C-alpha cells in the first residue's frame, strides 16, 4: 500500500458541512444578545418585574458570559473542543427552556446566568474548532468570511426575531427559539466534528481563573450599573478600579506561572492585538447603532417591534455582501489593515450620518443610509479580525485565543453600549434644560431624544476613527504570502 497526495472532495465537503453547525452555534450566541431586548416590555408586564430589576435580565447573561470566557476557552483546550462544544450546546438549550418556562424573576435570572455560562464554553470552543478545521489560506478566508458575517448580522437578526416572536407569539419564544437551534447543532456537530485537545494533563491556573473572572465580572457589572447610577457614582468607580487592579495582578501572575490561563505570547503579537482592538471597536459601533436606531424607529418614528426588525434587514444584507463578496476575496491577498481601516471609517461614517437626521427624516435618507454604511464596514472588519485573532496560534492555545477575541467582543459591546447610552442621556438632558422655554410636548421630547443620539453617535465616530489610526500603526502585518501546500490536499491511502 502506498500513500499519495490527492484531492479529497469528501473531506472538504465534510468541513463545510461542519461549518454550518458551528455557525448555527455562533448565531445562537450573538442572537441571544439582542433577541430578548425587544421582548423586555412584554416580559416585564407578564412577570410583574420592577423597572429597577429589569436590567438584570440582560446583565445576568452578560456577567456570566463575559466573566467566564477565558476559563471556557481553556477548558475546551484541555478537555476536548468537540466535547466542550456539545456540552455548551446542550447546556444552553436547557437554560433557554428553563428561561422560557419561568414564572418569576428569580427563575428567569438563574436561566439567563446559566445561558451566559454555557455560552462562555460554547463560543470559544466553536471558534477554536473553526481555527483547527480550516488551515488552507483560501478555505480559511471563506470560512472566516462566513463567521464574521454571522457575528456582525446576528444582533440585527435578533432584533427582527425578537420583534416577530413578541408580536405574533409570546415573549417566551424569544428564549425557546434557542432550543431547536441548539439541538440541530448538537446532532450535526456530533456526526461531523473531529475531536481535538491538548496532549498531556490539564493543570488549570486557579489564581489566574479567579483574578481574571473577578476582574471581568467587576468591569461588566460596573458598565451595567453606569446606565442607572452614572459613571461618576462611587459604586461604578469602585468596581472599575477594582476590576482594573484584578486584571493588572492577573497579567503579573500570567507572566510567572508555568501553565498560564492566558499565555503572554498570545497578546504580545501586534497583529493579534490589532485584531482584538478591531473586533471591540466594530462591536461598539454596531451595538451602539442597534440601540439608537431601535429607539429612534420605535419612539421617534412610531414603528412597531416587527417593523423595526424589518428596517434592519438592509444592514444585514450589506454585511453579507461585504463579508462574503469583498472581504473573503481580498483576505488572502492584502494586508489585514487594508480592510480593517476602511471598515472602521465606514462604521464611523454611519454613526456620523445621524447628524443629518431630523425627527421627520424619511427612512431611506436616514436609517437606510446609516445602516448600509455600518453594514458594509462591519463586513470588511469581522472576517479579517477573527482570522488574524487566531492566525498562527499554536494548536494548544486555540481555545484560549478564541476566548480572548470573544472577550474583546463582549466587553467592548457592554462598555460601549453603556458609555454611549450615558452620553445620549446626558445630551438629551442638556438639550431639555437649555430649551426649557419651549415647553413640554411629544414633538419636543422626540427632538431632545434625537439630540442625545446625535451626540453619542459623534463620540462613537471619534472613537472609531482614533481606533482606525491605532490599527494602522499597530497592525503592520504584510500581505499574505503564497500557499505552502495545495488546497484541499489530504494524505489518502491508495490500495495497489
TrEMBL record:
GO terms for cellular component: plasma membrane. It is a multi-pass membrane protein. Residues 18-479 form the Major facilitator superfamily (MFS) profile domain. The chain crosses the membrane at residues 16-40, 55-72, 84-102, 114-132, 144-165, 171-192, 204-224, 236-253, 274-297, 309-331, 338-354, 366-386, 453-475. InterPro entries: EmrB-like, MFS, MFS_dom, MFS_trans_sf. GO terms for molecular function: transmembrane transporter activity. It comes from the Bacteria. Keywords: Cell membrane, Membrane, Transmembrane, Transmembrane helix, Transport. It holds the Pfam family MFS_1. It is found in: Cell membrane. This is EmrB/QacA subfamily drug resistance transporter. It comes from Thermomonospora umbrina.
Amino acid at each position: 500500500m502506498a500513500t499519495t497526495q490527492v484531492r479529497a472532495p469528501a473531506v472538504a465537503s465534510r468541513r463545510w458541512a461542519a461549518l454550518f453547525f458551528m455557525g448555527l452555534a455562533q448565531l445562537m450566541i450573538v442572537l441571544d444578545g439582542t433577541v430578548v431586548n425587544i421582548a423586555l416590555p412584554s416580559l416585564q408586564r407578564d412577570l410583574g418585574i420592577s423597572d429597577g430589576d429589569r436590567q438584570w435580565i440582560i446583565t445576568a447573561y452578560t456577567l456570566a458570559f463575559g466573566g467566564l470566557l477565558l476559563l471556557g476557552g481553556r477548558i475546551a483546550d484541555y478537555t476536548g473542543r468537540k466535547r466542550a462544544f456539545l456540552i455548551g450546546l446542550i447546556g444552553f438549550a436547557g437554560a433557554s427552556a428553563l428561561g422560557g418556562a419561568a414564572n418569576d424573576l428569580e427563575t428567569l435570572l438563574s436561566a439567563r446566568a446559566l445561558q451566559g455560562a454555557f455560552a462562555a464554553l460554547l463560543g470559544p470552543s466553536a471558534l477554536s474548532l473553526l481555527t483547527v478545521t480550516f488551515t488552507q489560506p483560501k478555505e480559511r478566508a471563506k470560512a472566516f468570511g462566513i463567521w464574521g458575517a454571522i457575528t456582525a448580522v446576528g444582533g440585527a437578526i435578533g432584533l427582527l426575531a425578537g420583534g416577530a416572536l413578541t408580536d405574533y407569539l409570546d415573549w417566551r419564544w424569544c428564549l425557546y427559539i434557542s432550543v431547536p437551534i441548539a439541538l440541530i447543532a448538537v446532532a450535526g456537530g456530533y456526526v461531523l466534528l473531529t475531536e481535538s485537545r491538548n496532549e498531556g494533563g490539564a493543570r488549570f491556573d486557579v489564581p489566574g481563573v479567579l483574578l481574571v473572572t473577578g476582574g471581568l465580572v467587576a468591569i461588566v457589572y460596573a458598565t451595567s450599573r453606569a446606565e442607572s447610577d452614572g459613571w461618576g457614582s462611587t459604586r461604578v468607580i469602585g468596581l472599575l478600579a477594582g476590576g482594573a487592579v484584578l486584571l493588572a495582578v492577573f497579567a503579573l501572575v500570567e507572566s510567572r506561572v508555568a501553565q498560564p490561563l492566558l499565555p503572554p505570547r498570545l497578546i504580545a503579537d501586534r497583529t493579534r492585538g490589532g485584531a482584538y482592538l478591531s473586533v471591540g471597536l466594530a462591536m461598539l459601533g454596531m451595538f451602539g447603532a442597534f440601540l439608537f436606531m431601535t429607539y429612534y424607529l420605535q419612539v421617534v418614528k412610531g414603528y412597531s417591534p416587527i417593523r423595526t426588525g424589518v428596517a434592519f434587514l438592509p444592514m444585514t444584507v450589506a454585511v453579507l455582501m461585504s463579508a462574503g463578496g469583498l472581504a473573503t476575496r481580498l483576505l488572502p491577498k492584502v494586508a489585514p489593515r487594508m480592510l480593517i481601516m476602511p471598515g472602521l471609517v465606514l462604521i464611523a461614517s454611519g454613526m456620523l450620518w445621524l447628524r443629518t437626521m431630523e425627527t421627520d427624516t424619511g427612512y431611506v435618507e436616514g436609517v437606510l443610509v446609516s445602516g448600509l454604511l455600518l453594514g458594509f464596514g462591519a463586513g470588511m472588519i469581522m472576517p479579517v479580525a477573527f482570522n488574524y485573532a487566531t492566525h498562527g496560534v499554536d494548536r494548544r492555545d486555540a481555545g484560549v485565543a478564541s476566548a480572548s477575541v470573544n472577550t474583546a467582543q463582549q466587553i467592548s459591546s457592554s462598555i460601549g453600549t453603556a458609555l454611549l447610552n450615558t452620553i445620549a442621556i446626558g445630551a438629551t438632558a442638556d438639550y431639555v434644560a437649555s430649551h426649557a422655554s419651549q415647553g413640554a410636548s411629544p414633538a419636543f421630547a422626540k427632538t431632545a431624544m434625537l439630540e442625545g443620539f446625535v451626540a453619542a453617535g459623534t463620540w462613537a465616530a471619534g472613537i472609531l476613527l482614533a481606533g482606525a489610526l491605532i490599527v494602522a500603526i499597530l497592525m503592520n502585518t504584510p500581505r499574505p504570502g503564497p500557499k505552502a501546500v495545495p488546497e484541499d490536499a489530504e494524505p489518502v491511502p491508495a490500495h495497489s
